[in-house]
Amino acid sequence: MVIPVTQTESPAEAPEKRPQKWRFGSVEALAALLVAVVVFQGPISDVLSRAALATWTTVFVAVVTQAMPFLVFGVVLSAVIAVFVPPSFFARVLPSKPVLAVPVATSAGMVLPGCECASVPVAGAMMRRGVTPAAALAFLLAAPAINPIVLTATAVAFPGNPEMVVARFVASLLAACVMGWLWMRLGRTEWLKPPSRPSFEGQGKAAAFWGSVRHDIVHAGGFLVLGAMAAATLKAVVPEEWLSAVAGNPVISVLALAVLAVLLSICSEADAFVAASLSQFSLTARLTFLVVGPMVDLKLFAMQAGTFGRSFAIRFAPATFAVAIIISVIVGTVLL
């Protein structure tokens, strides 16, 4: 009987590592944009006439200049609270009954001045400390929309319509509570993947603080610039009669700005200035833009999927989108 001998591969005979796949990143995107500008410089020059370019520049600079101080202050204050206030604080102050914990957690969103980028890790930390998921999710939705920085920015952006501040606060508060109660009633444990690690683990307070500030400034500032560019483009390029036609239909205008809020993914501390620039649309449609944006957008969906799992995000985001639109229309009809 011959016993086969198994030969082990020597390091030299081991299979070579596969080369990393090429990925389309920010450098490639910038290169592609520059090539497109060179190739299509003729049509671009025709579109951006002197009058249109002046309008575009005016709107862009106005939106960024007005929004930037609120963005910076909100990011810094958010980092202070996220790093130096222990997550266990929220578990201690919330009621033990989930049905009562939801509105209390929603109201607690006022103590986290920051954009939605900061609310996701804080909500995850709350769950790890024993807070019921319904309350933590209500906090996640409310914090970017009802904090003092956002409400102050809204008042500055709509100086002639102070009722917009009240309407945004009420609509966002109600939408967050409704989503918390809906999750408590219909949500399933298997849909929600608990966050696996705490925020800022293994880092000192100072390093965690500056890391949080750098992250939020880069991400939120980038989306602010994109939002300002989109608002300026709508003003300068899209014919006025097109915007008037969309804005003139109450149903289409609300849905159009709700979808626009999802696509633009603007930081909640700056979205009021973009909404104020869309003067063709009704206050109710712009209220929908302000309520939907901090609760459902592309970057927030990606963060929720990465933190709580894809099964959660694909169910929670569409439900939040629908609830935010319905409540915005009801509150806008009553208060605006």
TrEMBL record:
Coiled-coil region(s): none
GO cellular component: plasma membrane
Lineage of the species this protein comes from: Bacteria, Bacillati, Actinomycetota, Actinomycetes, Micromonosporales
Entry protein name: Permease
Membrane protein topology class: Multi-pass membrane protein
Keywords: Cell membrane, Membrane, Transmembrane, Transmembrane helix
PANTHER family named in the record: UPF0718 PROTEIN YCGR
Pfam family, one: ArsP_1
Domain of life: Bacteria
Localization, UniProt: Cell membrane
Family: Belongs to the UPF0718 family.
Sequence intervals crossing the membrane: 22-40, 70-90, 136-158, 164-184, 217-236, 242-266, 273-292, 312-335
